[in-house]
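Tutorial, part two.
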Amino acid sequence: MRTSWDIFCHVIDNYGDAGVCWRLARQLAVEYDAEVRLWVDDPETLARLCALVPSEISGDTPRLIDGVWVHYWSSTWRNVVPADVVIEAFACQLPLDYLAAMAERSRPSLWLNLEYLSAEEWVAGCHGLPSLQQNGLQKYFFFPGFSPETGGLLREADLVKRRTEFQQSECAKIQFLRSLGVEVAAESALVSLFCYDSPALGQWLDAVSEGEVKRHFLVPAGRVVADVCRWLGRETYELGEPYQRGNVCIQFIPFLSQRDYDLLLWSCDFNVVRGEDSFVRAQWAAKPFLWHIYPQQEGAHFPKLDAFLHCYTEGLSADLKAAVVGSWRAWNAGVLPADMQGQLFAGGAELMGHSARWCARLEGQNNLAESLVQFYQNWV
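Running the prediction step on this input gives:
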């Protein structure tokens, strides 16, 4: 019999929650023949990731998309039969009626709290630990991560193969960029910019525009667009229109589906990413990147940033490691060191090679969907 899975997703304020849940749901359905329902409370956000119209997801009627039954999780909950495996993504609260029904099943549901991604040392020790709940069920904490002792990262079975084939085909890259209305001069380095708003952005673009290397920035719709417009001295912008200032060319492009966003990351020489989903996909692109971590009060995000940098920069030369760590910490602190451009784009061939080796290292461990399936099989 097919295993049934319910994934509950509460979208907070960006695309990472829905992005992670959608990728996971789709992979479980396609690669593991699971019967998957994805319950999401923000159909508009999910629709943009799937390149659908929001009305196609909202309402009482579920929609079958890529093998996943997508349900609108509204405040008026209707009773349903719980699945074999229930994933409470990022500590969202399950409906009370659903919790009661989980405990009443002849074989109780496996209840998993899928946590946020972190490279901190304590994660491996907490991964897979149970917590007894008031209804008598055990809830297990499941941590994605960067070591074999964690649940790993989301990675479709054919992802690396597809990326390699795309990156080896200059024709495929040109065709994709042209579909966005983008033509890149041969001497320009291509940079994607998908980050949170930052007080350092304008100063950094100033430095890059005055640098020796021409850089072509592609800016998908998102929070950073307003900052870029201010730097250009514009109140509005036209999609696809190239705006030149010094050695910087900027083009605003539409918000991309997950599939096309992967192609964007694979096409660029450098990627500025944010949150969790785009952060992971940048690593699978095997290209140098900068992570704009989700900011938390009182700098609570910096230990998480430093933990990843400790892992990621292992094996780099001392000078390049200092440049990467310095530029990442400065960016996330909203300040600009004297040589932000030089630090951020430092490394050249060394950083390119390091990015490929880091990707290969991650590929050697279980992917997140595989780890979840194995955990369920062991639990049964």
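The CA atoms of residues 5 and 365 lie 23 Å apart. In part three we will examine how such features are distributed along the chain.
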